[in-house]
């Protein structure tokens, strides 16, 4: 059975010329290291679920990505993080939203799945559960990043929100085309043909009202089912929520018999576009087939499989 790991670090208006050679090298190194961590689990006969957690943990620890340590600032100058994990064999899932000071939200999502008796925990309650499970907490200083802070300061006195740390206003007097969505995610197919998917994000800069996007919502930003596929999404969350993107891809495969590629294309390049949504997905099926599918200019993405293939890319194809 082909073993496959696919990861993403966000999608959006990512195009040649927007990054220096040094920045490209940093992103390449970050994506490759996450591949190394996740694929080592698969290569050792480990589960897709554990591989997904290992890869996402690496991305959460990297300040380049809007998740974990690299999370953006909210309206109140805090960090509120979301994450979800789903097991394609059992359809078990765990998710957290609006958690603070959790070093690795994806690890907490796994604990929710395995030990809470629930699927979705939020805010202070999720924090209480994390303490009961011995999850690692970090002080606010751990999550501080000068670039993220400066970008928040520019808009903190307004009601604008930014989709990521490059200054993309959701609403405002001046359109900004520099959209980049910093969510991270991973999907995997292990040696037994079992699938798993996970997603983690720091949300939107200057977000208010404890806003939650699609990332931790099972069936919207994250979904896995051995019968069909495992999917992790990145993009403008409100649209992915409305379109129930990850589950829709699975349903097209299960009920209409579409291939992984066909299902991804229908949802991302047709249905989502008609709604006005921008972003993309990574996906894998139980045969180890994988897809990068996005309707934006680019997506930080990478994959590795047991057939010797490895790919790391940013820009459109």
Automatic annotation (TrEMBL):
Keywords: Autocatalytic cleavage, Hydrolase, Protease. The record marks 182-183 as: Cleavage. The keyword Signal does not apply. Substrate binds at residues 211-214, 234-237. The active site is at 183 (nucleophile). SUPFAM superfamilies: N-terminal nucleophile aminohydrolases (Ntn hydrolases) (SSF56235). GO terms for biological process: proteolysis. GO terms for molecular function: hydrolase activity, acting on carbon-nitrogen (but not peptide) bonds, in linear amides; peptidase activity. This is Isoaspartyl peptidase.
């Amino acid at each position: 059975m082909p073993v496959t790991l696919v990861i993403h670090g966000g999608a959006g208006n990512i195009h040649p010329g927007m990054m220096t050679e040094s920045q490209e090298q940093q992103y390449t190194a970050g994506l490759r290291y996450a591949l190394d961590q996740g694929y080592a689990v698969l290569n050792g006969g480990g589960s897709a679920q554990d591989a997904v957690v290992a890869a996402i943990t690496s991305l959460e620890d990297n300040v380049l990505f809007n998740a974990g340590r690299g999370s953006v600032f909210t309206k109140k100058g805090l960090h509120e993080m979301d994450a979800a994990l789903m097991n394609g064999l059992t359809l078990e899932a765990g998710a957290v939203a609006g958690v603070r000071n959790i070093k690795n939200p994806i690890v907490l999502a796994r604990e929710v799945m395995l030990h809470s008796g629930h699927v979705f925990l939020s805010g202070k309650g999720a924090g209480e559960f994390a303490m009961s499970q011995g999850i690692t907490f970090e002080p606010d200083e751990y999550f501080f990043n000068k670039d993220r802070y400066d970008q928040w300061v520019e808009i903190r006195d307004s009601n604008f929100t930014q989709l990521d740390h490059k200054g993309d206003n959701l609403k405002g007097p001046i359109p900004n085309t520099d959209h980049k969505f910093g969510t991270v995610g991973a999907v995997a197919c292990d040696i037994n043909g079992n699938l798993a998917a996970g997603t983690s994000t720091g949300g939107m800069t200057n977000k208010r009202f404890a806003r939650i996007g699609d990332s931790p919502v099972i069936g919207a930003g994250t979904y896995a089912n051995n019968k069909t596929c495992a999917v992790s999404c990145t993009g403008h969350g409100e649209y992915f929520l409305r379109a129930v993107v990850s589950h829709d891809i699975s349903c097209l495969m299960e009920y209409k018999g579409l291939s992984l590629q066909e299902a991804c294309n229908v949802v991302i390049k047709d249905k989502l576009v008609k709604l006005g949504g921008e972003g993309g997905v990574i996906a894998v099926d139980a045969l180890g087939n994988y897809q990068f599918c996005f309707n934006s200019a680019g997506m930080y993405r990478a994959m590795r499989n047991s057939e010797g293939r490895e790919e790391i890319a940013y820009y459109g194809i």
